[in-house]
C-alpha cells in the first residue's frame, strides 16, 4: 500500500520538526566555533529521531564538514540520499562491513591491528588510498586503543600505503558537568600520544575530542574539529553547561483529542483503575501511548491544551493517555494537544519528559517511534509538509 497519496488520512498524532530552528541552531553553533575548527554533525540514530537526511542537508548548507554515524545502514542511507560529504562511522566495524565502507567512501575508526591489515588489503584491491581515524581510549573504556599503547598502531597505519591517517580522536566520559577534572585527564592522555608522535615527526591533520559538552565547555580541546550531536536539536547536554542564547528545540510531539469522557465521583480511568475521580471530571483521551515512546507513567506529567496544563490521570496505555481537562472547558474533540514542546506560554521540555522516565534527554528524543507521523515545519519561512514513516514526502 502506498501511503503517499495526498489525501491519505493521517494519524492525528505526530512529531513536528522545526527545520528553521534547526538551521538557526546550526548557525549559532557555527558562529560560536572559531572558524578554522571543523564541525562534524553527529546524525546517528536518525539524527536523534529528527530525520538524518533533513538534518544532514541543512547542516551541510550551514557549514558542516561531515557527519558522524553509528551504523553502516545509517551511512548508506545518507549516501543513497545523495550526500557526498565525509561520513565517519564512530563505532566498531565488523570485518564484513569494511568492503562496503571502502566501496562507498565511508571513513572508519580503527583501533586494533587485525582490522587495519584487512582494511589496507581491501583499500588496495580498490586501488584507493583510504582515510582512517585512530580511536584512542583515554578513560571512557569503551572503544579505542589505550592511549599508552597507541604508538605501534600509528606506525602500522603509516606503513600501509593504501591507508591515510586522517584523524585521531577520543571521547569524553564527562564533559558537561561542573567538575572538569577527568575531562582534563583525558585531554592530557590524548596529548601524550600527539606529543610522542610529534617527536617522531608525525602529525595527524584532524584531531577531535569534543561532543556537545566539550564544544561548549572545553574550548582548549576543540583542536581541528568538534563532533556535535544533541545541541543541533536545541537541547543542551546538561543543565550546568555553558548556554548559547537563541538555541531552541527543534522537535515537538503533538496529538489531537480523540475522545472526551465525563467521569462521575467514584469512577475510575484506565487499566488497573489507578485513578479514581473524587468529583465530576472531564477527561480527554489523546491517541498517543508508550507504543509511540511516551513514558509509561501513572498520574504524572501533563499535556498542553489551549495553552493550559492538563494533568495526566491514570496510566499510560500502548496507544492512549488520558488527561484532565475539567479546567479547560473550551477544549473540544480534535483540538490539538502538545505532549512535548510549547503551546502559548506553557512548555513541556524534553528534560521534563526525561525526568518522568528517570532518564536523559537523549533517550527521550531517540525513543519517539516511527509510527508517529513526521511533520516538517519552518516557522521562519512558514512552510509545512508532511512526511510518511518512511520519510517520503506526502503533501506540500
Ligand atoms: C554521539 C557521539 C557524539 C555526539 O554527542 P552529543 O553529546 O550528542 O553532542 C560525539 N562523539 C561520539 C563518539 C559519539 O558517539
What this model shows, in words?
- This protein is of the alpha/beta class and 396 residues long.
- It has two domains: 33-233, Alanine racemase (TIM Barrel, Alpha-Beta Barrel); 251-395, Lyase, Ornithine Decarboxylase, Chain A, domain 1.
- It is built from eleven helices and 23 strands.
- Strands 1, 11, 16, 17, 19, 20, 21, 22 and 23 form a nine-stranded mixed β-sheet that branches.
- Strand 5, helix 6 and strand 6 form a beta-alpha-beta unit.
- Pyridoxal-5'-phosphate (PLP) is lined by residues 42, 44, 90, 171, 211-213, 227-231, 237.
- Residues 42, 44, 90, 171, 211-213, 227-231, 237 line the site of pyridoxal-5'-phosphate (PLP).
CATH architecture of the largest domain: Alpha-Beta Barrel
Number of spatially distinct domains: 2
Distance between the termini: 20 Å
- What is the number of helices? 11
Number of strands: 23
Average the pLDDT over all residues and give the rounded result. Answer: 94
Q: Can you tell me the overall shape?
A: elongated
Radius of gyration: 24 Å
Helix proportion of residues, in percent? 25-40%
What small molecules are bound in this structure?
pyridoxal-5'-phosphate
Largest sheet: 9 strands, mixed
What is the fold named in CATH at topology level of the largest domain?
TIM Barrel
The stretches of 5 or more residues where confidence is low (pLDDT under 50) are: 388-396
CATH superfamily (homologous) name of the largest domain:
Alanine racemase
The structure class reads: alpha/beta
At the first level of CATH, what is the class of the largest domain?
Answer: Alpha Beta
Percentage beta strand: 25-35%
